[in-house]
Design the sequence.
């Protein structure tokens, strides 16, 4: 049975409302970090999928390579991101997190989890787990329907999970349709 138009419209509204609320909470917690939201977003994406090319990262972030270059330069200067030669193409390089970058990302996750834990102090564990599963399910559906870096749309798959450079569980890149060499 498919989702009704009014339910889909309400869900879109709620997603954007959630995004705005998350941005507000995240901005409030940024006072503990030297990094701005753009830098932190770049760290998250490298942590989830690294090592990866800058062009792949820019496409995933939905920005151009020139917009990404400043954040990468800053993150390299902080010692959070390192470049290494791409073994498949000597002209290209791969981006990954340094140990300091992984530590910064882990600290950011921990701080955000603690902030959310405080915000949800009147929720039960069951309510939080149900919300997490719903968000995961929605994210999977959106990713499977969205265009890939190469412009193709992936076929639904039963993707396996792996642990990213950030220490969290993520979809195994090998189980997804390849967008670019990783």
Sequence:
């Amino acid at each position: 049975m498919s989702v009704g138009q009014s339910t889909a419209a309400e869900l879109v509204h709620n997603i954007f409302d959630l995004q705005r609320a998350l941005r507000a909470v995240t901005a409030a917690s940024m006072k503990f970090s030297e990094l701005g939201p753009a830098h932190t977003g770049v760290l998250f994406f490298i942590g989830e999928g690294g090592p990866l090319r800058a062009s792949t990262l820019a496409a995933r972030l939905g920005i151009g390579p020139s917009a990404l270059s400043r954040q990468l330069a800053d993150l390299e200067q902080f010692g959070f991101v390192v470049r290494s030669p791409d073994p498949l193409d000597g002209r290209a390089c791969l981006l990954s997190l340094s140990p300091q970058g992984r530590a910064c990302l882990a600290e950011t996750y921990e701080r955000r989890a603690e902030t959310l834990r405080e915000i949800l102090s009147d929720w039960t564990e069951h309510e939080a787990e149900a919300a997490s599963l719903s968000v995961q399910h929605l994210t999977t559906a959106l990713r499977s329907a969205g265009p890939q870096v190469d412009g193709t749309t992936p076929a639904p798959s039963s993707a396996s999970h792996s642990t990213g450079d950030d220490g969290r569980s993520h979809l195994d890149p090998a189980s997804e349709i390849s967008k670019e060499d990783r």
